Amino acid sequence: MVLLHGCCHNPTGANLDAGQWAEVAALMAARGAVPFIDLAYQGFGDGLEADAAATRAIADQFPEVLIAASCSKNFGIYRERTGILIALTERSRKDVVQGNLNFLNRQNYSFPPDHGARLVTMILEDPVLTADWKAELEEVRQNMLTLRRTLADELRRATNSDRFDFVAHHRGMFSRLGLTEAEVDVLRQDHGIYMVSDSRINIAGLNARTVPVLAAAIAKVTG
Ligand SMILES: Cc1ncc(COP(=O)(O)O)c(C=O)c1O
Fold this sequence. Notes:
Blueprint: E1 2-5, H1 18-31, E2 35-39, H2 48-61, E3 65-70, E4 83-88, H3 94-108, H4 115-124, H5 127-159, H6 166-169, E5 174-176, H7 181-191, E6 200-202, H8 210-222
Parallel strand pairs: 1-2, 2-3
Antiparallel strand pairs: 3-4, 5-6
Helix pairs in contact: 5-8, 7-8
Pyridoxal-5'-phosphate binds near residues 38, 40, 70, 72 and 81.
């Protein structure tokens, strides 16, 4: 079993292109691995369809695939923790797979809360609500891309280097900036800027006012 993030990798922010996905798929096929795809940020990277492309390609190529698709982020219902587990298998193994899923369901929660799933169902069964949701999700995605581009531009200006250009090419909510733990400590102590010790930041937590402040502080601690 190989666990993969379908798009917008958390924590790194790296996003494989089609060629890289093909290489990963070839490697898994050679090793006889079962892909387990965690798709938690569909719609946050290059769009709803584009973000599912790698998952679909792998589902087409492998006889057995597990896909955990989350709605927590792309429907803005994080505290409902809503999603779906899809198990793809050959028809002859359907009963075994269903039996295992039933067992795991019983062991884990038996009857999970239904509120988030009902909200998602209501939206996806109504074309007007679905169109609204897609438009809002696209706005969120574009906002994150703009923040990525402005942060990369500000960092280029402030550090006078292309070291952080990758921030604009990353996708999704997160990027790991590649700062040392000591530099993260200085950002916290001297600039009041907090991030995970591995220098992962949440791009969606920034705004037009805070991007230049962050870039200037990073330039100072890395300069
Ligand atoms: C890659 C990834 N998968 C899954 C989850 C959790 O998804 P859910 O809210 O559906 O449990 C997260 C974050 O919350 C995540 O970053």
